[in-house]
Amino acid sequence: MSYRLVLTIAFSAMILSACGTSRRTSPPRDTGATPVDGGADTMVSSDGSTPDAELDSGSPADTSPPPDSGPAPECRVPSDCDDGIACTDDSCRSPSNTCNNTPNDALCSPGMTCQAGIGCTGTACDESPCRLLTPQCGCPTGEGCYLTSATGRSCLPAGTLVEGAACASDGACEPGHICAGFGVAACLRACRTDAECPGTTNLCLLNASDGVTKACTGTCDPIAQTGCPPGGSCGIAREDTGARRGLAFCSGLGGPGVQGSGCSDEDDCAAGYTCGGVCAKICRVGLSDCPTGTTCDATAEDIVVGSTTYNFCG
To answer: Residue 135 contacts by C-beta under 8 Å, 6 or more apart in sequence?
Structure first.
């Protein structure tokens, strides 16, 4: 009996030991994350950093379209505005971001102009860089071709002085004219042949600085003293060689000398007179242009200008 009791007590003690509160348990497994104090759902890694992904809040994703920002701009850079016309300057206006295509004649051949939407139009100039004689070519609108050196021509802003007006430089005259003359400078038509000088008394005789171009002599009246700029007078002369054609030309006013006054050159005589040792008035043969007591001297060589024959009172 006593032996069986001992075994029963020992077995009961083993059962109680297994069911008691002090039983040994395994340590928790390391998950690599620790809950943040305060009850937040964010997890912190063992190294203290926050994982990239946040916990789903449970709110549905926003799938509505972005607000309407208006039409797209026409351009952002000049290359967006290429109109396919080689002679336009293409640019993108700021801040409106709209295109601007400006015609530029300088991008065309001399004598041609640039038209928006079309390109270069007209006929290329047959002279380089520009043509000096009328009709001119090779210069953009608002400019004219002028002599700028002994042999050079350039396009410059167009002058406004008309033919016969007093001038100080070629550039002051209308395109197609040069500033030249005898003693008094006037705007004279540029030429290379007489045919380019209007009027039957207008000859292509006055040499320009380039040695090729000349100027028309003009069509002043030596009797009425008209056709010359202020400060000038109209005289007559003859070519020294060749056909020895007569011409009328503008020169300086000269001095006070009148009929019979002593002189050494033309500058000593008044307008309408010439110097031949003494001042003599210009006259038309067969007409009464001379002072009393003198006649239009038929013994001197006549000077024919157009259809009029001139000589001098004596």
So the answer is: 176
